């Protein structure tokens, strides 16, 4: 193992990232006087636990950066692009750029919990670095990788469509009724004029999901049927399409056509509808098979893939029909193949609200019944919910002297603002000897380990130079590095049994108190775990700085081979002294822990 002597720089570096670091939101086609969404930069040095536009970071620390926007306009924005430059001396952590919606956030220093990101299931993933980064300059569509928009490619990932704020849920209520005289099951999904509000549906938009259908009580002749009623809380957050699916069934004994657009209690899943939200448009209805008594009827079933990203209103239209021969009331809320367009519904997504249902005229055998028809113009606009951010990580440099970084920020239509990043040089701790209690661990080859990694104050009494007996100081810039060797692998600390470490992070704590003193993270390329001390303090002899969770590892299958190298160091020279005045154990033997696989049996 190669050990490099470093000059002892008795200094630690703190970075102050000030508000206004170069970021702008560029809106294609907007004049300087045009209204544009607002934006702000926020930073975190503790893995996202706290946020500020003015933070202190340790040398070499990863700074989590968010460029926030707030589209509080009444209309969407085309050609939107966020631009920012990494400060001089900082470097981008590869494959960490993503976009997120955070509609419940009112203050970016305290982000809301309601969030969906391009890295979440059903979205486009991390945004491709090569598509949005040019050197230290980021140019990105604020919602690249969300709503089915590309997460790669030029110009699509660089500029695009910034939607308005949306209510989160479309709450469909499917209300089933039974008309005994006609042996007739029928339903409503909107308000209708028949009998006032007695057959009305509570279909609505809300930021709270429905937990049950809301239905009129019926008029006594037609009674409410709970088992044929249901609801769907359709989540619009991060989803482009409402895929509305009408599933029709025929009950021969009652000459009765009846349909669902939601799951219902009747028959378990045999009559359920696949109505959902997604970033992929439906291409056919997904329906339960029926129970044999009521059979699935394909010609009376259908679907509508409604684009709610580009449209404000979901215009839901219920078209009621009456089949006289079967004394049968039935409806359609989407286009169906039966009768060509004669039974089609005008359900659509639009930027204009419906004012009446649009329905096919019927074919004569089944006639259109206006009083059993209705509509709901569901307005999904919510200008208070237009916040989101672009996020990436950057690594702080290791300057030796105080260095100012002047930057400007601009937004089309809002003028410019100025900010400054100042590197402040402070004194480093000079008391105590930190190290590992053992220099080598022997472990099985091809074996999973999950040890806590800790570095101890005065770990080896009697060593030369003699360690300080009293206490040790810790401070900014001190580092524990864990590197896999010879085919060993770092596993995922967040997912049991997982093998991906991307994005994993946890705390470094003072063992005696459990207080957080630093941050550990897995490098995106999986080449190391790095634990950075981010606070100054003092520990008693025998106390340790320890990872808050075990570090999961898989050792090389090779025998008698170094599997992991754990190192304690400071990039400016390790500031540790023994009892001898001026003494220092820079790169001393106790600063290294090598994890080695055991020899082959018999060797």
Q: Helix share of residues?
A: under 10%
The total of helices stands at 1
Q: Give the N-terminus to C-terminus distance in angstroms.
A: 24 Å
Instruction: Quote the average pLDDT.
Output: 82
Count of distinct structural domains: 3
**Strand order in the largest sheet:** 31-34-42-38-39-40-36-44-45-32
Cα-atom radius of gyration: 32 Å
- Structural class comes to mainly beta
Describe the biggest sheet?
Answer: 10 strands, mixed
Report the sheet-strand fraction: 35-45%
Quantity of strands, as a count: 45
**Per the principal axes of the C-alpha atoms, what is the gross shape?**
elongated
Low-confidence stretches: 1-35, 407-421, 494-503, 575-587
Question: What secondary-structure arrangement, pairings included, does this model have?
Answer:
Layout: E1 12-17, E2 23-27, E3 38-44, E4 55-57, E5 62-70, E6 77-85, E7 91-92, E8 98-101, E9 116-117, H1 129-132, E10 133-134, E11 137-140, E12 160-162, E13 169-179, E14 184-188, E15 204-206, E16 222-224, E17 230-235, E18 241-251, E19 256-260, E20 276-278, E21 294-296, E22 302-307, E23 313-323, E24 328-332, E25 348-350, E26 366-368, E27 374-379, E28 387-395, E29 403-411, E30 415-426, E31 434-435, E32 440-443, E33 448-449, E34 454-457, E35 471-474, E36 479-484, E37 489-490, E38 505-510, E39 516-522, E40 529-533, E41 537-540, E42 544-547, E43 553-554, E44 562-569, E45 592-597
Parallel strand pairs: 32-45
Antiparallel strand pairs: 1-4, 1-30, 2-6, 3-5, 5-28, 6-11, 6-12, 7-28, 8-9, 8-28, 10-11, 13-14, 13-15, 13-16, 13-17, 18-19, 18-20, 18-21, 18-22, 23-24, 23-25, 23-26, 23-27, 29-30, 31-34, 33-43, 34-42, 35-41, 36-40, 36-44, 37-43, 38-39, 38-42, 39-40, 44-45
